[in-house]
Design brief:
Radius of gyration: 22 Å
Largest sheet: 10 strands, mixed
Structural class: alpha/beta
Low-confidence stretches: 55-60
CATH class of the largest domain: Alpha Beta
Number of strands: 13
Number of helices: 11
Distance between the termini: 32 Å
Length: about 300
């Protein structure tokens, strides 16, 4: 008989309803583990718990699934494919990625939270956000790349947009914005707020919910928006002009227990070879000079 029990089996073992099992899990009162979205229970741990010899905090930690969550990054997306790493990409924005790490639903997350005003190009934003929720967690924040963020505009820049302040001086401007929780959206809000524009820009001019750097570029190319904040590589990909604004850091938050798993090791090994360096050099606005640098490390053992 397997030592691991399902929700139905543990309910039968404890002579309670499955609904009560879920309630105990939600309250953190019963030892449990997660295998992806599935709950499983170790019979020996449950029996020890029933005898009062331990609690949920003493259970072994399962590896999170082989998923990279967080921000969309063209270099990272390409590296996962080219390396053959058995990793799924679930890029729904930096804040969602951090949430997926907290929930144990991803082994890594790409993050690019904006640093405080005046600290452009630093990794302070990522480390600060991770530190808020990382106490006691088995995480390390590693450098991946620095990227230039700016305004993607039509070829030839027909509206003459040269700075963030020009967004308020151009009538009927259609501005594309990333989805809420994306690092690019939070950076846009910070830049416009710092410039005193957030309250003056007409909300009717925003086209919201663009879910990736590439989608911003595609929306400009198709004429659905006049400009949008994205990385320089997205502008080049779609044959568009680019107005550079700031340099940012994209870092990888990694579950330390998963670091030596074959999937992540395949990615990191690939990131150390000449093919990866050549690809990064070909992407405008990218630098991998600090690839692998430790930005933040939890105190968890």
């Amino acid at each position: 008989m397997s030592n691991f029990l399902t929700v139905a089996e543990i309910a039968d073992h404890l002579r309670i309803r499955p609904r009560k099992v879920y309630a105990l899990v939600a309250a953190g009162e019963i030892p449990h583990r997660r295998a992806g979205a599935r709950l499983i229970f170790d019979r020996q741990e449950i029996d020890s718990w029933l005898r009062g010899e331990g609690g949920p905090q003493e259970t072994s930690r399962l590896r999170p699934p082989a998923v990279i969550a967080g921000s969309h990054d063209p270099l990272l997306e390409w590296a996962v494919r080219a390396s053959g790493a058995a990793l799924a990409m679930m890029t729904r924005g930096s804040r969602d990625g951090l949430g997926q790490m907290v929930a144990g639903e991803a082994c890594a997350a790409a993050l690019h939270f904006p640093p405080p005003p005046g600290e452009a190009g630093s990794a302070a934003g990522n480390a600060t956000e991770v530190d808020l929720v990382g106490a006691g967690r088995h995480w390390t924040l590693l450098g991946w790349a620095s990227r230039v963020q700016g305004l993607v505009v039509a070829p030839g820049n027909p509206l003459g947009i040269c700075a963030i302040a020009d967004l308020a001086r151009t009538p009927a401007l259609r501005i594309g914005r990333r989805q809420a929780g994306a690092g690019g959206r939070e950076l846009f809000d910070q830049l416009t707020m710092t410039a005193g524009l957030l309250a003056t820009l007409p909300s009717a001019g925003f086209v919201d919910g663009l879910t990736s750097e590439d989608e911003v570029g595609l929306a400009v190319r198709e004429g659905r928006i006049d400009c949008g904040l994205a990385i320089e590589a997205a502008a080049l990909r779609h044959g568009l002009d680019f107005v550079p604004l700031v340099e940012e850091r994209l870092d990888l938050l990694v579950d330390r227990g998963s670091y030596f798993d074959a999937s992540l090791q395949a990615l990191f090994d690939f990131a150390g070879n000449a093919q990866f360096r050549s690809r990064a050099a070909a992407l405008p606005g990218y630098s991998i000079a600090e690839l692998g640098a430790v930005r933040w490390n939890s105190a968890a053992s």
